[in-house]
Specification:
Blueprint (H helix, E strand, L loop, with lengths): L2 H24 L3 E5 L4 H6 L1 H10 L4 E8 L19 E6 L7 H15 L3 E4 L8 H10 L4 E3 L22 H11 L18 H15 L2 H4 L2 E5 L11 H15 L2 E4 L6 H11 L3 E2 L6 H8 L4 E4 L3 H8 L4 E5 L16 E4 L17 H4 L3 H13 L7 E2 L9
Parallel strand pairs: 1-2, 1-4, 2-3, 4-5, 6-7, 6-9, 7-8, 9-10, 10-11, 11-12
């Protein structure tokens, strides 16, 4: 076959394939978005959800997530209440369920009744039950899958070797959408917009005026979240105490201390030591906490959901990051953030409770975190995330 004829044939095939894809996209009417996890997991999926919403402007989106433990924050408490999802669906998971098969059967029938035509599969990287999940959704009557290609397992941990820096989880989800033909932004530029509305902003400002006094108008609020649901990700309380004291005395900042209800007593202890500060732990909804964080000069905390909340509203983050997971994967998304992390022999342990006396976090000194905080106040707001170099070579 002459080269020109072959080229023309390939071109026509590509055009036909593109036309078929556009026709399939145009036929999409009811989309089920599947994402599991907690506050941070929900926020990290937001750029992918925004990309899907833009690509299918005429389709209705429903969210399916899990609710597995006491105090678990549901996605509808985090994501915009209007304009993104038409309904929110959950299913129970975790310890304490006596009839899990009945729960799953009920969910299957519920999904069938809703007649979804497309699944957007946003399960996290490393999920081991992908094909089981897809078989379940197929049984629910869904015939088109998006986001299931490209999901892979986490790299193996090799003792004595530096950990691989992974692409951000948000960019990993976007890449999977791209493999399914969905246009996505470049890495690091996903649309992380919580859609905080005017009413939420004003309610947060009213709370701040009441509890922070003139600090709001003087623009000297600093967000601090010293807690975490994972002990292995929690920088020691006494270091937050010392850091907060320096932020107050040397930088003249007023601490807005955040977290869940379980963090309230810890925050009270810190504020008592500092002599000033407002305790928002358990006092604000997730979205009002996000609105309050948007009023802060910067935020400092652990690898936790509040960090992702601050990043989502554009507040620069300084994070004392545990080496429990792979570097890069769960860093605050976007520009202007500082991550401080140490390489240690036990890095990548994935433990919820550390068995090495928090070695990686205790190597992060107060002075270094304070210097990073001071630098945030001075640096270009468009600067890319600055990651501190790993300071210890691991040899075993």
């Amino acid at each position: 076959m002459p080269e020109s004829v072959a080229h023309g044939s390939n071109l026509h095939q590509a055009e036909r394939a593109e036309a078929a894809t556009k026709a399939a996209d145009a036929s999409v009417r009811r989309i089920l978005v599947y994402r599991i996890g907690s506050i941070g997991d929900t926020i990290i999926a937001l750029p992918a959800v925004r990309a899907v919403s833009r690509h299918f402007p005429r389709a209705s989106l429903s969210f399916l997530g899990n609710a597995h433990e006491k105090g678990h924050v549901l996605a509808q408490s985090v994501l915009p209440p209007d304009g993104l999802f038409e309904e929110w669906l959950t299913y129970p998971t975790g310890v304490g369920r006596t009839r899990p098969s009945k729960d799953i059967g009920r969910l299957l029938l519920d999904l069938r009744r809703r007649k979804f035509d497309t699944l957007v599969y946003l399960a996290p990287r490393g999920r081991t039950h992908v094909w089981r999940d897809l078989a379940f959704f197929y049984a629910a009557g869904i015939r088109r899958f998006i986001g299931h290609q490209g999901i892979d397992q986490l790299p193996a941990r090799v003792l004595g070797q530096p950990q691989t820096v992974l692409e951000h989880e948000a960019d990993h989800l976007l890449h999977r959408l791209q493999l399914s033909g969905i246009p996505v932004p470049p890495p690091g530029e996903g649309e992380m917009d919580l859609g905080i509305n005017a009413d939420e902003k004003e309610r947060a400002r009213a709370w701040l005026r009441e509890h922070c006094g003139e600090a709001l108008e003087l623009n000297n609020l600093v967000g601090i979240a010293p807690g975490s649901n994972w002990q292995s990700k929690t920088w020691p309380e006494e270091r937050f105490a010392e850091l907060g004291a320096r932020l107050i005395s040397e930088l003249k900042l007023f601490p807005l201390v955040l977290g869940g209800p379980e963090d309230y007593e810890r925050n009270e202890r810190l504020i008592a030591l500092w002599g000033r500060g407002a305790n928002a732990a358990g006092q604000l909804s997730v979205r009002l906490a996000a609105a309050a964080l948007s009023e802060c000069r910067f935020y400092v905390g652990n690898d936790t959901g509040t960090t992702h909340l601050a990043a989502a509203v554009g507040t620069p983050c300084v994070v004392a990051f545990s080496a429990q997971d792979w570097p890069g994967r769960w860093y605050p998304y976007g520009r202007g953030h500082t991550v401080i992390r140490r390489a240690v022999a036990c890095a990548g342990c994935m433990l919820r409770d550390c068995d090495q006396d928090l070695e990686c976090l205790k190597q992060i000194e107060v002075g270094e975190v304070f210097d990073a905080c001071r630098a945030v106040l001075m640096k270009d707001p468009n600067a890319k995330t600055r990651r501190h170099e790993e300071m210890q070579n691991v040899t075993l």
